[in-house]
């Protein structure tokens, strides 16, 4: 039979199936069908010869097995809850833990309760009660308890002498139980309760397994012969009679035949021992219900099994395409040339090789990312210190640092500047390359020591006998003030001993804003002017400088200057003029001539920024001596107007002209890319990365250039191409959706949203229109030229 089926398979469509599928599916179907046939024969034999004689004993044996299973289920629940009660998660810390503040611990408790709730199928839900000044309840999430009834209920549980016990769930009715354990498990004075409520329906289903069929009755009694669980909500007369019969019995376990009405019941009973308590189980099954259908069923099973075997073999050929379709599609995507290849490789071997190849590439990519991460961090910090990204908001800076795997947010930031001195005391003559080598050695030493002592610390090499250290610390766990002092001393000793140099270390103030790190760096640079030129180690703390060394007497507004330069770089005219007014007002607060001096200094900074941006000030201002013009103006308002009209506006016009030219080139590049790759998975972020700008800037430029948003432009191209394919080809809609970059379920919705009809309706309407045109042409004849 197997050989004939395989021959039929290969003749029909076996060439479309893979090696593994052809070689195994027939055997699986046969193996699944033959056991049913064999079971039918065995059931028929035992049903006709032995079942009537052994049914009562068999029922009793089955009862014992199922009772043992039920007992194991309850034991597993008890053992599991006991283990959780002794788990450190539910230890003494919960008594005084602030669950709102310590979110991670609260989250750990919630996860543990979720795991406990899913540890057994009988568990409906789990509750945790903590007796604090304000009682806490987890269900499994965190709640404050204000209901006095609930608090009294849990306090009553805590006052019970038992540490762990079963209790009837009064809220769920007669047919539900709950298991209670006080926590901590090892504490003589518990302060909490772990309460596991069982699923009423599943508990009833478990109890009903003690009867072979749905008829009959099954119930549990406590040691006082009161019903704890029953397969019905109300007490049945049969149950009352069985309870009276068991009360008069001298045995704890046993079986008997009980006649009730026209039925004879096979009754089995026994005892569960549960946590120093005893439960009595009772199961009564109708004898006639068990015996009468089995013989008829066994004969039917023979015929059904035989018929199922034949049908399964026939249907296997019919449904093979649908069964194999997902694997076939996956293989076609992995290896489109596989059908043409003569190599008969197992499908799963092909998938495995492809998966291993992808895994290797993924691991290689992760390794490259890890290797470039220090460079990316160094570049970001350099840009932050030099003010090149000062136009970004605090949230944008934090997001960038998070992408570099730094923890930011509720943190303090500190910058430490280290300058190497005493180089002239070394006997040998030092060249500039030797100085860079010394700086690199000191940088490596600092990097190792920072990584060992600080959770988040990063060293920067300035290559000019100076290095920087950027330290991030959590607000909740601020480092000890002596920790940084100790690090400076250890680093100083290491440099003195290994490099035979002295160091001057300057420690900045703390700030909780990334935007102010640039200011910390500028303060440290200015503080270097107070360094004593002695051949000894020096430590300068910005917080400890005496009043005469502070910078309060410096009237120049460095912060405002930085804002002006950043606004000029970004081309924000309104912000430049706003900050320029603040700049001139800051100078006028002291004396009027300070405003002119500050403006001269600002002019130099602006020209320096122009050179950095690639614009020549001499060419831009036609060789005019701007300093001479500015020195002749003293009125603050005239200073602002002169700076606006003579310096700022020409620069911004030139910058805008260059940006427009660059923007136009970028937009042409992006639009060409969209038309060439619309069928691929392209996004705004991908295109922004391709041209080297952020997604927000590209979105704004694209809207200005095309008049529509990026996604609308891409969707319009895809819909136009889809309409063309629907009109001119007979391809399946699913294939057309993939050709234009959509999955079918999204394609139908998007197409209808933009066109007004579904793709199939559009194709039908287009076909009808073509037929009308063709019929009109056939009636009127060919058109004349």
From TrEMBL:
Record field: transmembrane: 25-47, 301-319
Domain HTH araC/xylS-type: 668-765
Name of the protein in its database record: Helix-turn-helix domain-containing protein
A Pfam family it matches: HTH_18
SMART domains for the chain: HTH_ARAC (SM00342)
UniProt key word Transmembrane: yes
Source superkingdom: Bacteria
Keywords from the UniProt entry: DNA-binding, Membrane, Transcription, Transcription regulation, Transmembrane, Transmembrane helix
Signal peptide segment: none
Lyase found in the keyword field: no
């Amino acid at each position: 039979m197997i050989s004939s089926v395989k021959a039929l398979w290969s003749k029909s469509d076996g060439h479309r199936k893979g090696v593994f599928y052809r070689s195994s599916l027939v055997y699986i179907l046969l193996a699944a069908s033959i056991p049913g046939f064999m079971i039918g024969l065995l059931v028929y034999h035992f049903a006709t010869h032995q079942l009537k004689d052994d049914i009562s004993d068999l029922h009793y044996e089955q009862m014992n097995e199922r009772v043992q299973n039920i007992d194991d289920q309850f034991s597993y629940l008890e053992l599991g809850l006991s283990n959780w009660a002794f788990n450190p998660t539910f230890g003494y810390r919960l008594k005084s833990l602030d669950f709102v503040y310590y979110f991670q611990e609260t989250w750990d408790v919630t996860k543990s309760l979720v795991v406990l709730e899913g540890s057994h199928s009988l568990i409906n839900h789990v509750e945790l009660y903590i007796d604090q000044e304000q009682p806490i309840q987890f269900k499994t999430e965190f709640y404050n308890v204000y209901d006095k009834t609930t608090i009294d209920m849990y306090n009553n549980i805590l006052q019970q002498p038992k540490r762990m016990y079963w209790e009837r769930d009064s809220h769920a009715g007669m047919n539900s139980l709950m298991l209670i354990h006080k926590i901590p498990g090892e504490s003589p004075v518990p302060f909490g309760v772990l309460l596991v409520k069982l699923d009423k329906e599943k508990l009833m289903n478990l109890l009903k397994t003690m009867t072979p069929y749905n008829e009959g009755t099954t119930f549990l009694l406590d040691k006082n012969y009161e019903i704890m669980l029953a397969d019905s909500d109300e007490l049945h007369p049969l149950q009352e009679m069985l309870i009276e019969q068991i009360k008069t019995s001298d045995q704890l376990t046993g079986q008997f035949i009980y006649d009730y009405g026209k039925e004879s019941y096979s009754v089995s009973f026994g005892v569960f021992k549960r946590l120093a308590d005893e439960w009595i189980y009772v199961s009564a099954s109708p004898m006639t219900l068990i015996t009468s259908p089995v013989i008829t069923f066994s004969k039917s099973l023979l015929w059904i099994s035989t018929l199922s075997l034949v049908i399964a073999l026939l249907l296997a050929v019919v449904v093979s395409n649908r069964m194999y379709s997902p694997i076939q599609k996956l293989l076609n995507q992995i290896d489109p040339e596989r059908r043409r290849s003569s190599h008969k490789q197992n499908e799963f071997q092909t998938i495995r090789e492809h998966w291993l190849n992808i895994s290797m590439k993924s691991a290689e990519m992760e390794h490259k990312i890890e290797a470039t991460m220090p460079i990316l961090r160094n570049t970001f910090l350099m840009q932050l210190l030099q003010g090149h990204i000062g136009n970004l908001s605090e949230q944008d800076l934090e997001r960038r640092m998070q992408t570099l795997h730094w923890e930011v947010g509720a943190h303090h930031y500190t910058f430490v500047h280290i300058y190497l001195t005493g180089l002239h005391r070394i006997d040998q003559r030092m060249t500039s390359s030797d100085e860079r080598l010394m700086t690199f050695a000191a940088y490596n030493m600092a990097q190792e020591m920072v990584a060992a002592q600080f959770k988040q610390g990063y060293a920067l090499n300035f290559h000019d006998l100076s290095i920087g250290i950027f330290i991030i610390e959590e607000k909740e766990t601020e480092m000890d003030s002596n920790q940084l002092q100790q690090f400076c001393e250890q680093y100083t000793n290491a440099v003195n001993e290994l490099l035979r140099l002295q160091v001057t270390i300057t420690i900045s103030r703390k700030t909780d804003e990334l935007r102010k790190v640039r200011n910390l760096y500028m303060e440290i640079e200015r503080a270097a002017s107070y360094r004593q030129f002695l051949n000894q180690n020096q430590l300068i703390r910005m917080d400890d400088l005496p009043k005469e060394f502070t910078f309060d007497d410096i009237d120049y507004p460095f912060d405002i200057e930085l804002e002006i330069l950043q606004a000029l770089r970004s081309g924000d005219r309104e912000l430049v003029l706003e900050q320029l007014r603040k700049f001139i007002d800051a100078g006028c607060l002291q004396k009027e001539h300070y405003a002119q001096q500050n403006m001269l200094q600002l002019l130099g900074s602006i020209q320096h920024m122009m050179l950095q941006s690639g614009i020549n000030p001499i060419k831009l201002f036609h060789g005019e001596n701007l300093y001479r013009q500015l020195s002749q103006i003293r009125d603050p308002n005239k200073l602002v107007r002169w700076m606006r009209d003579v310096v700022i506006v020409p620069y911004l016009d030139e910058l805008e002209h260059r940006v427009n030219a660059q923007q136009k080139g970028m937009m042409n590049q992006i639009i060409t890319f969209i038309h060439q790759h619309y069928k691929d998975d392209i996004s705004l972020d991908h295109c922004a990365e391709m041209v080297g700008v952020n997604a927000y800037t590209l979105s704004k430029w694209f809207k200005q250039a095309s008049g529509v948003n990026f996604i609308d432009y891409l969707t319009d191209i895809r819909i136009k191409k889809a309409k063309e394919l629907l009109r001119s080809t007979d391809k399946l809609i699913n294939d057309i959706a993939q050709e234009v970059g959509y999955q079918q379920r999204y394609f139908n919705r998007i197409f209808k949203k933009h066109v007004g009809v579904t793709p199939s309706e559009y194709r039908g309407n287009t076909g009808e229109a073509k037929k009308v045109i063709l019929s009109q042409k056939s009636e009127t004849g060919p058109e004349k030229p």
